[in-house]
């Protein structure tokens, strides 16, 4: 059974790469151009870290010494803006910037002691990063690609009225992206990082 599944997976991976190779020879005939994009993301890494993803694991990791319940979560974004230059090749380069903000309440306690504290938290994060993508298929009205970006996030966080600002390295990997349209197009990406698990929007080719 395991051998059958392994053969099935390997066969479909090879079929995918063969499919990609069949189209790679046509992309270099495209003219160079620029793209301006605006998009909206869902479940960015900033949101995931701050909006309760660790609630179920923290008591296990601390043997019940710390438990957290996150409630009243609100988030806007990330809203993403980007510019890309696409030369006569399958690789593009550009700059991407995005902003996300949100708020939540967290109740902190312990399974081993009485008493709880409630914190009201607000945050906003601005990220800017260079980005590159590789285009498996690039035709006039359809593009299939993957992309990666690594940059810097400027985070402002307020807990019970006390504000703290700090910076950290951030990134995003879009495993697969699909764009449809000629000069004006719509696109969607599936990945992980500061742009969200799902990121969708419109862009304009110049």
Can you walk me through this structure?
- By secondary structure, the chain is of the alpha+beta class.
- The chain has one domain: Porin (Beta Barrel).
- Helix content is 16%, strand content 62%.
- It has helices at 2-24, 45-50, 58-61; strands spanning 33-42, 67-86, 91-109, 117-138, 142-159, 162-181, 184-193, 198-205.
- Strands 1-2-3-4-5-6-7-8 form an eight-stranded antiparallel barrel.
- The longest helix has 23 residues, at 2-24.
- The termini are far apart.
Per CATH, the class reads Mainly Beta
As laid out across the biggest beta sheet, the strand order is 1-2-3-4-5-6-7-8
Net shape: elongated
Element order, helices and strands?
A: HEHHEEEEEEE
Count of helical regions: 3
Query: How many structural domains?
Result: 1
Number-wise, the strands total 8
Which structural class is indicated by helix and strand composition? alpha+beta
The percentage helix is: 10-25%
For the largest beta-sheet, the strand count, sense and barrel status come to: 8 strands, antiparallel, barrel
């Amino acid at each position: 059974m395991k051998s059958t599944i392994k053969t099935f997976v390997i066969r479909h991976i090879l079929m995918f790469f063969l499919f990609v190779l069949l189209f790679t020879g046509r992309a270099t005939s495209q003219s160079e151009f620029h793209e301006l994009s605006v998009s909206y993301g869902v479940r960015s890494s900033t949101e995931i870290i701050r909006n309760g993803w660790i609630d179920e694991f923290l008591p296990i990791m601390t043997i019940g010494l710390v438990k957290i319940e996150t409630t009243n979560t609100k988030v806007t974004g990330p809203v993403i803006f980007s510019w890309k230059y696409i030369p006569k090749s399958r690789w593009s380069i550009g700059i991407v910037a995005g902003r996300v903000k949100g708020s939540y309440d967290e109740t902190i306690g312990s399974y081993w002691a009485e008493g709880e504290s409630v914190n009201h938290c607000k945050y906003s994060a601005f990220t800017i990063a260079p980005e590159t993508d590789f285009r498996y298929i690039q035709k006039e009205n359809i593009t299939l690609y993957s992309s990666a970006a690594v940059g810097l996030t400027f985070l402002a966080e307020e807990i019970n009225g006390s504000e703290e600002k700090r910076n950290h390295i951030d990134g995003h990997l879009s495993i697969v992206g699909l764009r449809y349209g000629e000069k004006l197009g719509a696109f969607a990406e599936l990945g992980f990082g500061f742009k969200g698990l799902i990121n969708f929007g419109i862009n304009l080719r110049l």
